[in-house]
Amino acid sequence: MKLYHGTNGDKWKEFYQHGIRPRGAGAPGNFNGAGHPNAVYLTSSMAPAYSSIAPPGDLCGVIEISDRLLNLSLMRPDTDYLNAIADLAVTQFTPAQNHQASEKRTHEWQSSLSVVGQVAYMGRVPPKSFTRVALFPRTVLAPYFERFLTIIDDITFMRAQEIFGECTEYLFSGENPDVDVQDAPSVLQGFKTIRAGVPLEPLAAPLGIDYAKILKRACERFALPCDSIHGPKHWAKVEEIGLRLAHSTGADVDVVRLFAALHDVERREDGEDPEHGQRAAQLATRWRTEGFELHKLDESRFLSLYMACQCHAMGLTSEDATIGTCWDADRLDLGRVGITPSSEFLSTRSAQDGVR
Ligand SMILES: [Fe+2]
User: Cα 291 from chain centroid?
Assistant: First the structure.
């Protein structure tokens, strides 16, 4: 799925260097308008309209983003959509709305895209998920705004989307010589710091999870000998590999670290033990309910952790960046038992590139 983000002036360069940060991060290039402070707003069609806030004379920009590296569990419906369905005059997501959205999961943000053409991504959008950028003078938008103004008295989200959806397509079609379309990989090469791997900052405020406390309790609980091939040494290795992968995959580092500590803690056998993933997911739920550290995870993150633990030994791959990173980190430590993981069992391109 392709999503878009409208920007202006040279601000697109900031995004290419650091990713698109949530509004509350106060980063250069952040739009200061209304919206949830932990969200980046992405759209299927309306980006050209948002890019038009560029001062006259500045270039407008639309960044094309693939969802391949996005954690889809962090997608939320847009506020306009929530207002439209609830007929409430709210300007921010309330906890109740977040809960409602996450209960219905996939479907609410997808509905939001189809109704208002926009979703909120509750975290940072990594530059590696960019596919192209279109840079253009504001004049290119004029015919589309003219059409838009003819419907403004009778505005519907769908019609606005239709007009700017066409505009988005046109911008990336390469038909207008005034529009400079550049492939993200070639632009990213210009930013050597990214190629060297600038550490990603946390998506939001640090969660304050006490990992030492979690590890201590996990070790006390582990039923196999401490030097087991699925024991604490392996957990540490999974954490190390996972955090390294997260630099490029954009995975949620808290979930990766928790997965490392918990995914094998419920093993009762070093050999066949098909239920250990399910038991680990249940243990995580129990600790969260008890208020032991995991209650600091919001529902989206907890869901990712739960899924990652539950299904990690089923031989699956995942398109979700965080879950895929967890599973890849586990599989990339198969070297300890003399197995080189095949790239077809790896989820992320970073891990696949590593084994090729
Ligand atoms: Fe493992």
Answer: 26
Q: How far is the CA of 235 from the centre of ligand 1 (A)?
A: 7
**What is the average pLDDT across 315-339?**
89
Six token digits for residue 37: 């402070």
For residue 100, is pLDDT > 70?
no
pLDDT for 200 equals: 35
Q: Walk across the sheet containing 118-121 and list its strands.
A: 75-77, 118-121, 40-43, 2-8, 59-66, 130-137, 180-183
Whether the pTM exceeds 0.85: the reply is no
Dihedral Cα 24, 28, 34, 37, nearest 10 deg? -10
Select from 2.60.120.10, 1.10.3210.10, 3.30.200.20, 1.10.10.10 the CATH code of 188-355.
Answer: 1.10.3210.10
| Distance between CA atoms of residues 160 and 116, nearest Å | 9
Instruction: Work out the burial of residue 340: count CB atoms within 10 Å of its CB; fewer than 13 is exposed, 13-18 middle, 19 or more buried.
Output: exposed
Between the CA of 128 and the centroid of ligand 1 the distance, in Å, is 27
Most confident of 55-59, 73-77, 161-165: 161-165
- Say what the pLDDT of residue 312 is: 94
Summarised one tens digit per residue, pLDDT across range 148-164 is: 887 766 556 777 888 99
Centroid of ligand 1 to alpha carbon of 248 (angstroms) = 21
CATH topology of domain 2-183: ADP-ribosylation fold (3.20.170)
